[in-house]
Amino acid sequence: MADGSQPQCCVAGGGPAGLMLGYLLARAGVRVTVLEKHADFLRDFRGDTVHPSTLEIMFELGLIDRFLKLPHQKVERVGGKVGETPVTIVDFSHLPVREKYIALMPQWDFLNFIAAEAAKLPTFTLLMNAEATDLIERGDTVVGVRVKTPEGDRDIMADVVVAADGRGSKLRERAGLAIEDIGAPMDVLWFRLPALAADVGDTKALFGAGYLLVMLFRGDYWQCAYVIPKGSLADVKAEGIEAFRNRIALASSFERLRMDTIASWDDVKLLTVRVDRLLQWYQKGFLCIGDAAHAMSPIGGVGVNLAVQDAVAAANILAKPLKAGTVGLEDLRQVQKRRMFPTRVTQAIQVAAQNNIIGPTLSLREQPKPPLALRLMQRFPVLQRIPARVLGLGVRREHVADFIREGRG
Ligand SMILES: Cc1cc2nc3c(=O)[nH]c(=O)nc-3n(C[C@H](O)[C@H](O)[C@H](O)COP(=O)(O)OP(=O)(O)OC[C@H]3O[C@@H](n4cnc5c(N)ncnc54)[C@H](O)[C@@H]3O)c2cc1C
Fold it and tell me: How far, in Å, from the CA of 180 to the mean position of ligand 1?
């Protein structure tokens, strides 16, 4: 059990999962230290979707009004085109939550906001420029973490170490936890196109002959995701940047001039899509959450959302035993038990979409027509609420426990 000078919980990784967990535990009065290997939260685009269920968590925590003062765009509906046919796919406007839309916000704004709120709590510590490099074990139990800082290496001991260090998690590798690789037939190329004043600011998915382009409206630009078959970046590059610009002009129907913003391949970032999950998320004194426990496909943009939901579940389950100094293997097992089901179901939906919709679209030679399900959704718009619920609220929605909301440990 940690003495009064040590954190009761040390969280490696200041992404959505790690920072949210740190904040919630500290709000319940647990001494928690979050380690982030970077000096700040500024990164390239890497998941800017704040889903309705995450907005509802912010509401439950009494943070929503201040949070929504940060610049963001609202996505109330997701539409697009299948071939030449315009379609509406998702309608969030009927969800049973306060904020019925996805907020598009740079992830660093989201993280800076949580970090600033957490910094107000006396039991919260955030160490930037602090990289967790190894686990410290006593017998078969993790008792701390080795940390690299600009001032040198140090050991931080804690009752529980949580790996929230993302899909390339070093700590889960050190723990030797087995990974189930589920696979994905695609990769994604991310880039921006300028938005013009006349653009209608809808988020849209454009399915065509051999392509899928998703475009998120970000005010003065479009954040674009162009899906390519797995491992085919070298082939795309071999065709040359001009051919790529032509592909995007065709898919987006934007005038050719806008494509000049894709000046070189440096403007195009590859997301190697990975779908995997740990078979077991924990061992004595150690737990993985967020992408470290399960890398998600970008379909539906649910990675941030699941990471936050994991954090809420982990805080609800662990805060009291951590505070009491009684936390044990069974508590850690309960976190996996709670979160494995939504992870499995969400990944199963993503894999079904990958295999039945996206994979086939990428090999089409002619413009597709909307499938029956989508045609029915246009005829009976009430059906658009079904994907909205799955996407917007997730499979097993978490709520912040009252004792955390109220700051009672
Ligand atoms: C290009 C791209 C686009 C994406 N688009 C979307 C999207 O639109 N919507 C969506 O929901 N999701 C999206 N995702 C996925 C989403 O970003 C992740 O699912 C989500 O951020 C997971 O949160 P996390 O906290 O588990 O991990 P991460 O966000 O990966 O955070 C991990 C943190 O740990 C830090 N870290 C890593 N190793 C260490 C260490 N050893 N010690 C200390 N700190 C460490 C990292 O610097 C990082 O800050 C995208 C991802 C990428 C890469």
Answer: 19
CA of 295 to the centre of ligand 1 (A): 9
- Which of 148, 172, 291, 297, when mutated, tests ligand 1's pocket best, judged by the most ligand atoms within 8 Å of its CB? 291
Q: What is the C-alpha to C-alpha distance for residues 302 and 49, in angstroms, rounded to an integer?
A: 8
Distance CA 397, CA 136 (A): 34
120 — pLDDT class (breaks 50, 70, 90): very high
46 within ligand 1 shell (Cβ under 6 A): yes
Kindly report, residue by residue over 263-319, the tens digit of the pLDDT: 999 999 999 999 999 999 999 999 999 999 999 998 888 999 999 999 999 999 999
Domain boundaries, the chain: 9-73+102-182+274-358, 186-271
- Distance separating alpha carbons of residues 83 and 370, to the nearest angstrom: 8
131 lines ligand 1 (CB under 6 A): yes
Pocket lining: 145 vs ligand 1, CB cutoff 6 Å: no
Please list, residue by residue across 122-135, b when 16 or more beta carbons sit within 10 angstroms of its beta carbon and e when fewer do.
ebbbbbbebbbeeb
Q: What is the pLDDT of residues 215-224, one digit of tens each?
A: 999 888 999 9
CATH fold for domain 9-73+102-182+274-358: FAD/NAD(P)-binding domain (3.50.50)
Q: Which residue's CA is minimally distant from atom 27 of ligand 1? A: 166
The letter for the amino acid at 277 is R
